[in-house]
Amino acid sequence: MSSTYILHYFDGGGRGEPIRWLFAYAGQDFVDNRIELREWPLMKPKTPFGTLPYVEVDGQVLGELGTILRFLARRFNLYGQNPWEEARIDEIMDFVKDRRAAYPRYVQAVFFENQPEMAAQAKADYIDQAPLTLKKLEEILAATKHGVLVGTQTSLVDISVAYYFYTLERFKKGILDDYPTLRDHGSKIWNSDGIQKWLRKRNLSFW
After folding, report:
1. What is the pTM for the complete model shown?
2. Which of 75, 117, 185, 190 has the smallest CB count inside 10 Å?
């Protein structure tokens, strides 16, 4: 019997969207429970750590984005083929996470606090961080020689990084033009059947 998955997050992209992309790429059905902002104050104390997203898996509750992604990736055979590859996946994901910290600030400023000046600064910071991040990812990708960031097959880190590229392109169209190998890498994920199906139907209030 297959497992039942429920994702709890706001009606937007933000921190919930990488989980949706992972479900979509894996071809795994899930319930996308979208929380309205007016519901959040009452719901917050009932969540595992007072934050979203969290998931329910066969009735068991799991919070924290990174933990959720790793748990699901293991289940979907998208977390490397040995402990070393798992560690490399974590390493690269932590590297990117540290350098995209401005994105949550942007989402917070735009959709929760209505602070356009803060949003503009967060957007600028996000774009300014990109070149050094993209250069390092380009080096990592070139070194593997398999068209993926770790090992010989697509894994969680490829999907997560492709979503990072996707948000960058939303902020600044053409930002990947100087990084053709990364653009091609992202395109393989974006154009996969699962992700394309998700992008056509997701209908989010904000991204």
Report:
1. 0.91
2. 117
